[in-house]
Amino acid sequence: MKLRRAVAVSLRAARQTVRADVPSSQRGVALLVVLVTVAIMGALSTEFAYNTRTNIWMAGNVTSDTQAFYHARSATEIASLAVNAKRNFPQMKAALSLMGKGGGAKLEIWRQACEFVKIFSTGKASFFGLDILDLSQEEAVGVNTGEFRCEVTAEDSRANLNAAASDPPHMVAATPKGKGRTSTKRSNGRNQLGLKLYGLFRPFLESGEFDSEDEIVELIANIMDWTDADDTKTDIGPDGRFIDSGGAESTDYGAYGYDSKNARMDTVGEVQLVEGLPSDVYCKIRDKLTVFSTGKLNVNDADLGTLKGVLCEALPDDAAKLLLCWNIMPGQIAPMDEALIALQTCRDLKKAAYSTPFTNMNQFVQFFQKFPGVIGDGTALPINSRLVKEHLGVTTTMVRITSNGVYRKTEREHTTVIDLASGATVYSHIH
Q1: What Å distances lie between residue 47 and 23, 53, 59, 195, CA to CA?
Q2: Domains in the chain, CATH or no CATH each
Q3: What is the pTM of this model?
């Protein structure tokens, strides 16, 4: 009881002391100061915690991005080594020579470059679905987190937008052709480009992106005029070949704030600056174009539409072109498309068996000459083999390696173009 009374007396005395020392008007201010201080400290703590957490996330993203970059670079380096195997490894040349002139010399090692990449990424190799090698326990092979992969394609399968820029002056000095006769020698670059682009653009006439064939031809001429060095307009001659019209280039880019470049395109995306190219058409064909000097279109990898432009031009006359290529009735497939679908099946089967579809142009021409019943009466496509061989080929001069590196949820892509003749990298970009 005494203790309880003593405590009560003490508390009463403390309350009297507070009331005596602190006026009632100041007690609310003190409480407000305390509350504001607590709020500021809470905000600072929250901001500090947020910044710390953000910095940790950013560091993690940088780590993932760097790791994904090196994964992609690893794929590119391994694939590049395989692409240049014939040049870098004398033993490879010796081994291929044992296969004979028709075998090893024409074997395209670059087509299997990404199979080597797969081995180093996974540590395993398979052949026709059967596991034939397992190096996943080796320290130098395989990755613990993420992966890297690649795709290698022939750059010659794409239409070279700069083909017209590589032409010499369009009208060169006349060369003798018998007594009292002359002939004008022209480069073939623009005509090759014209056929390839026509094959790419022509299907969009049916889907409504273009209103007429004249619009397509005008666009092709504008592309040539953009890349060639002169100011003379390109037009179609009486023989169907692209020639100088004799007039000035009529396309005016002043409304867009720039002039016609009259020089080679540096990137495929630059073609969007050319008058007459719809954006949706560009998005659908951009992966079928290139700015590198690749020469003839490689029939083993070329887009079917691009091939169609050349093959249809190789038919004997306009009536045959309409009948076999473009005069499509509802619910029917054009005879040329039927043959090209079969061609694609043939190419896929050959590549699945690690074989080059066509090793010479005679094989390619005979494929169409022997294709049964394509017209309906049992005869084959009457294509002009000389013109086909003039524009198409089976040689790969450049390859494109597209490598992807993945680390956790981050992915980087590295694109490289390699010149097979020199082994040099002519283009490299990572994104």
Answers
A1: 37, 10, 18, 63
A2: 2-53 (no CATH), 161-288 (1.10.40.60)
A3: 0.73
